[in-house]
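Subject: sequence -> structure tokens, single chain

Hey, anyone have a minute? Need the predicted structure for the following. Not urgent.
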Amino acid sequence: MPNGPQGETDPADQSRNNDLRWAETALFDTPGHVLNHESGPSTSSATTSWTALPARGPLRRLVPASARFAAEAFANDHDAMSPTRRAMGRAARLSVRSGTLRFAPKLYADTTTVFHDPASSVIAAAADALGRPIAAAAITLGPRRYNRKPVVQLMNAAAETVGYLKVGASPLTSAMVATEAATVDRLCPTSAILRVPTVLWRSRWHGCEVACFSSVAVRAAEHVAADPSRLVEIALAVVQAGGGQHDHTLRDCVPFTRVRSAAGPNSDIQKLIDIAAEVFGDRTVSIGSWHGDFSPWNMISTADSTALIDWEFADDAMAIGADLLHNRVMTATHLRGEAPWRPLRVLLDAGDDVPELHAMAVPSHQHRPHLLLYLLELMRRDLELQRLNQPDTGFGVSARAAAQAILADAVR
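Reply:
Had a minute. Here:
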């Protein structure tokens, strides 16, 4: 390990070590004693190895060092990928298949511990529960943010993906894993346009929720990004898969009472909620299921259907059309680099003629309260993170300003 002038550990290396220990704590019974830089616990022990990516900076993924398994780990097309990025992905798969990772530094572990000892490894526990031998695993750590949790791509000896294991690494992410598993189990898609993963296994590991989901990946040649009209069909299919829509008054609907509860003693937010109840409380709103993060990176499309993954923000009670509103905001901010207020400003300027809501057959007189409920949900998410002493998403402030603008305009 490189040291500084006074013999101190390099901060970048220490940061990567912290990432590694975090992953080990979530995945293994004895963190700090499983993954190492040596060739294995002993010369007689079978070892498995990974390449840590990227080579420098925050640790994001552990990819099997074997060329066959590494190529499968790099096969992760989704709808947010541009043609250029997709071409780069194909080139990366060809590169690792040819063995370019063999020169990169490795991490090693005892194969028996990782894949065959359910008492020591959640990966082995999943393999045991599935009744299927696991020969390799790619471990995604993800960026350092509130919803970070290890996602393990389980592969068999033929380098085929058996499933994706999600491991709750905190009470918050444990709840997210539980939400996703319960939602996927509950959904009953009635349209062939929508595909969802299945829950292969669900349990608890050291007090945290874990769940293994089936793969919904398609061959690269079959992948096409969903067009806007497809998005409407998928959003409608989500509502139907969750049991259809139901009408309520705004003040009595679950999304509104949920944010009121989350606001707690926050007097400024409670004041805004009270005004919303006074202005729109008796308005009818249409409520149904939503995905909660209806974004291109959670979609894998073919010419005939779209698979939706990552249901950890899903709920069976949200204003109809909120998924499409969220798609607009996420696409603008994450793919085009816009500040959150820009797409929200476009939605505000649309008044009672929001295209996404018309597409979902929401009557014009419901557009303002439906948009308001979506904005309140963005605020609620930040309130929950603040309650847990976590950094907020950054969308709550803009959502609050937009909600205030709607209410100010309504009381003129």
